[in-house]
Amino acid sequence: MQRCFAKIHNRVFEGEGNVASHLRRELKKRFPSCPADVPDAFIFLPAGFGGLGVYNPFIRLRQLEGQVSANPNKIMDGFCQAEVRNYQIAKAAYPTRKSGPLTRHHNRDRFPSFAEYTRDREHLSCELLQAYELLRYQPRPKKVEVSHDLENMLPKDCKNIGIYTNSTLSLLERYRDELEQHYGGLQIVEARLLPMGMVSAARRQRIKWKTY
Fold first, then answer.
1. Are 193 and 200 a contacting pair, CB within 8 Å?
2. 87-96 long-range CB contacts below 8 Å, 24 or more apart?
3. Phi-psi category of residue 51: left, alpha or beta, with phi > 0 → left and psi -120 to 50 → alpha
4. For residue 205, what pLDDT is reported?
């Protein structure tokens, strides 16, 4: 997935960096007094903290790390191998007429072919059901472990970690030192000065930039 996003960035920005570097160039072009080295924190932090609120897909991906199969084909490969193994076991045990996975073949004079044996796998195979459930499993983001330093930096009236989303906590943890260095805390702009009503209105409609 990360390689996929890297290819998208290279294609969209023609090898000239990523979305952050592109925004820095645009900010400098539109606002000449803007410094060229705008911190990443300003670009990706939510508007409620004074940032631009640009969505960073890698934050979400890191929260799902370890919960998604790197190669889904391995799940089906494992199922196919188990199916062949079960068939061979059932075929070897067939002359003894033991109970088990070959019960439905007891009245046959010969053991069925592999194609016949697996014909009803969609209805009878527990292994296929297990593989299907693994493939359709929807991972849940891991809970972000908030460091003691970040907890101390949170606004006094917002100490309850539960009010922050996982993505916001991940961003704050990631850019904590950068925020402290450039802005003296987590809040880039004082909350009372943020035009959140205007931001919300702008997000509800398409904005067309005009150059005068």
1. no
2. 87/114, 87/117, 87/118, 90/117
3. beta
4. 63
How do residues 129-153 score in pLDDT, each as one tens digit?
A: 999 998 888 877 777 777 888 877 7
41 contacts 179 by C-beta, under 8 angstroms: yes
Q: What is the pLDDT of residue 132?
A: 92
User: Token match 């919960």: residue?
Assistant: 67
Question: How deeply is 113 buried, as exposed, middle or buried, from its count of CB atoms within 10 A (0-12, 13-18, 19+)?
Answer: exposed
Look at the block and give the residue holding tokens 């943020």: 194
Of 58, 37, 39, nearest in space to 49 by CA: 39
In angstroms, the CA 154 to CA 161 distance is: 9
The answer to whether the CB of 138 falls within 8 A of the CB of 145 is no
Name the stretches of the chain with pLDDT < 50. 102-103, 105-106, 212
